[in-house]
Amino acid sequence: MGVEYPDSNCRSSCDDDDSEAALHPSNDDNDNVAPRFRLRRLARVQDDASAAFLPGAGGAMSVYVTMHRIRRLVIAAIDDTYTLEELRAPLIDHQVVRPLVERLYNPEDPAIVYCLVANRVQFLRPNSREAIHQGVNESRATLCELLATRVLRRFHEDHPGRAGLLLLANILVSGFDPCDAAPESIRSRRPQWAIQERGGHERKLTALELAIISESKWLIKSPACELVVDAVYKGVVVYTPLSFVDFLPDHYKYHPVSLYEPRRAAILNHRRLIVPQLRNVVELMHFIVLLLLYMLTVAQYGFGGDLSGVHIYEITFNVFATGWVLEQFAAVVEHGWEVHAQNLWSFLDATFVAIYAAYGLVRALELLIADDAYYALPVLCTAAPVLLTRIAFTVMPDNIVFIALHAMMRDFTRLTFIAIWCFAGFVVGLLFLARTSGEGSLNESVTWATICKWLLWIWFGLDGTGIERAADFHLILGPTLIITFAFLGNTLFLTILVAILTNTFSKIISNEAAEIQFRRAVLTFQGVKSDAIFSYPPPFNVLALMVMLPLKFLVGPVAFHHINVAVIRIINAPILLLIGLWERRRVWARRSKPGSRSWRYFPGLSPHGDIQIVFSSEPPPEVLDALEKMDALHEVAGTTTGERMPQSPKDFRGHASSVRRRRTSNSSSVRRFDA
């Protein structure tokens, strides 16, 4: 759990797989087919916005104008369905994708990636009026994601080092208003719900949040986005997140996106509680405490304990569980269920909350009505599989098996509800058949529960009582309904279920790296909290909601901020002190030994350590000169373009920038759209 602090001369690799596909044509037959794009129409696309919305010399346009500009260009570019592989093919890449990147990329406009992902969200949104164009819109959404990836890579290439990391972080996690500089007629149509004051940062969204909502896994897997997500996860990049509603809002101070320096921060820095890497550890400790209290409560009542009255373990468990449920509910409200559902263990938390709510209701009725009843304990026991499974999901969030299980559970739940809804007709039909034409005792004793039990046993192949009694419903119609149900349930439904789950699992396994990085991005984005309620550990968050929230309306924002920070530091003093000392010691150790390697690398302990030593540093100048005399790189890879290729990895970034500048100066981006 180490926090890495980038040096001023750091350089990150910006290679991407799509560049290889563009530079090295494949031998597929599809590459020789002319792309079905309306290039001539795209050449005639002009920005008809008024002069007030146009940028100045080298400036950036408003977010509203940029979003509509991108939408017009993408709609004009694609007129048919394409996959990501087809859009990355060399021919289409050179004729459409790269010219669009050249046209849209503006070093002074950090909102361009946000606008591209916002258009992807809009293209993926179901629209009944454009149902026949849904496939084309999905291709346009894919093109928006590909353009956002390329533009973000351009920012990464042109801005290296700490300044580049700060710029990339502003692009991905800074908030943008989609109605920025929009006409008054558009702004007046916005929903007028009550929004908490955030000092001008209301109604703003981030590019990373839109990428998570639209499942832009190719964009999130890119090296530039991965660099930012890793920096935010480790606490190198800090900022005040944007949320919709806070339970305990404290927005007196807004911290913009910045790089964290431990030596200049306070020793009890309460803002380190929202660092995702540190917060995951704290939340894991909270869940372990919840699990231990649960075990003690069930063991006290279940192993020969006294079932009457309320015991100390149950009281402690209920108090802590109430605070934990409040924290989960605040996490859902923080960014919405659509983002929270992307978390691996969100369905487990929702299941435990439902079980705990049922237990609390039954337990309250027991204490109010009958002291000697103990119906709530069996309800509480059903939470054990959920809690123990949740531990495994929390400890191994990057395990591809758990990621696939999360996706398959979503498909399985959806298909199961559909099956229950459809098969309910068999229960109703057999019940009416038994009442109208049932023979003997069947007409009097059969109930819908009995019919459900017989059908369920047939479904799982456990018992054939329902088939044996089918003729008692009706001599002909009874066996017909039962046999039809057996065929549909055991054959059709199970075949469809296996096919869907197999398809989901194969898709996730085939794109394992992107799936893992996507889940890591979700975990990072959800880990940064703006609500002050998350700084209070359970069950102190319940007390904070009862005491601090009324206090907010009695004092001013400045006084409330100081009181809130003081209380948070007092409650979390041991954790904050440990975090502060650990981070400072790590930074001092790195600064005192700038040339030392991390303890993770010991080439001498590996039989392949000599290979690592050979490639660990650049060859000396005399070796490079000898290699250049033997194999001149500009003759090997630059003969087709007449350009001299770089001789060392450090020169590749500057070489790519110079090539782009020459391409831009030789021909305008508008001419590239001509057929």
UniProtKB/TrEMBL annotation:
InterPro entries: LHD_YVC1, TRP_calcium_channel, YVC1_C. Residues 665-675 have a biased composition (Low complexity). The chain crosses the membrane at residues 281-303, 344-362, 374-395, 415-434, 446-462, 482-501, 540-560, 566-583. Keywords: Membrane, Transmembrane, Transmembrane helix. It holds the Pfam family YVC1_C. Residues 67-253 form the YVC1 N-terminal linker helical domain. Residues 1-32, 638-675 are annotated as: Disordered. Residues 310-584 form the Calcium channel YVC1-like C-terminal transmembrane domain. This is Nonselective cation channel.
